[in-house]
Amino acid sequence: MGIDKERREDFSTQKYWQDRYTTTTDSSTFDWLITYTQLGPLIHALLSTYNAPRILNVGCGNSTLSRDLHDDGFSNLVSIDYAPSCIEQMRQRDPELEWEVQDATRMTYPDASFDAVVDKSTLDCLSTTHDDSARRYQDETLRVLKDTGVWIVVSYSGYREEGFGADWTVERHEVEVDSGGNEGGVHRPTVCMYVYILQKRER
Ligand SMILES: C[S@@+](CC[C@H](N)C(=O)[O-])C[C@H]1O[C@@H](n2cnc3c(N)ncnc32)[C@H](O)[C@@H]1O
Questions:
Q1: What does the pLDDT read at residue 2?
Q2: Which residues line ligand 1 (CB under 6 A)?
Q3: How far is the C-alpha of 134 from the C-alpha of 126, rounded, in Å?
Q4: Ligand 1 center–CA 178 separation, angstroms
Q5: What are the alphabetically sorted keywords of the record (predicted)?
Q6: How far is the CA of 132 from the centre of ligand 1 (A)?
Q7: How far apart are CA 71 and CA 166, in angstroms?
Q8: pLDDT tens for each residue of 107-166
Q9: What is the spatial distance between Cα 32 and Cα 142, in angstroms, rounded to a whole number?
Q10: Domains in the chain, please, with CATH?
């Protein structure tokens, strides 16, 4: 997200997202950072180690990720976003899937509800503030994950590790993404996105 300070801070407000999804009411989808074509092999291999894993997609937006996971065999899935306009749109678009308005920093799910929590650029948003929302989201993720669970964080930042703290073991993968070649004479090189695989440390 190559953006200036003012815009970056917008990404951490619920109003920004609520307005954004209110103005995009057509059937278009938008995937931040990376699509399932690029992400799928890594996620598939990881989630296949669980038996019918219960999955939480946090900050689902209007991306195709939940539908892609479902079609890839991972149908025990709930997708949340704190923008009601987003969830309303997704329920209409894809009523077969489970969608809920939830704030990731104070989820209503019981402890140890999920085998996997998937985050594509939601922690990126929460990390644009100087308040403690990213920390509260991490604590909530730790709480709702089973002890054997996994938190998959897809980010544009290769420097997230420092913020994860001592509760997790962290593996970082790089995924190369073609940013559009040299269309129109503008040089757009291959870039890297980062996938963090976090497991709870034994206490
Ligand atoms: C950068 S978008 C990513 C959307 C989608 N995951 C994707 O990959 O295209 C971040 C999403 O996180 C949601 N979000 C941000 N903070 C949140 C929070 N505290 N709780 C739930 N959703 C949140 C926003 O509404 C937005 O839809």
A1: 44
A2: 17, 30-32, 59-61, 63, 65, 80-83, 86, 103-105, 120-122, 125-126
A3: 5
A4: 23
A5: Methyltransferase, Transferase
A6: 17
A7: 35
A8: 999 999 999 999 999 999 999 888 899 999 999 999 999 999 999 999 999 999 888 989
A9: 24
A10: 5-154 (3.40.50.150)
Q: Whose CA is nearest to atom 11 of ligand 1?
A: 59
CA dist 1 and 33 (Å) reads 8
H helix intervals, the chain: 5-10, 14-23, 36-47, 65-71, 84-93, 122-126, 133-144, 161-164
Ligand 1 centroid–CA 59 distance in Å is 3
What pLDDT does 130 receive? 81
How many angstroms separate the CA atoms of 62 and 42, rounded?
A: 22
Of all protein residues, the one whose alpha carbon is nearest to atom 27 of ligand 1 is: 61
pLDDT of residue 188: 73
Phi and psi, residue 10, nearest 5°? -55, -35
User: Do the beta carbons of residue 200 and residue 142 sit within 8 Å?
Assistant: yes
The CA distance from 188 to 117, in Å, is: 32
> What pLDDT does residue 1 have?
42
DSSP string, 86-119: HHHHHHHH-TTSEEEE--TTS--SPTT-EEEEEE
- The C-alpha atoms of residue 45 and residue 50 are separated, in whole angstroms, by 10
* pLDDT on residue 180: 67
The number of residues making up the chain comes to 203
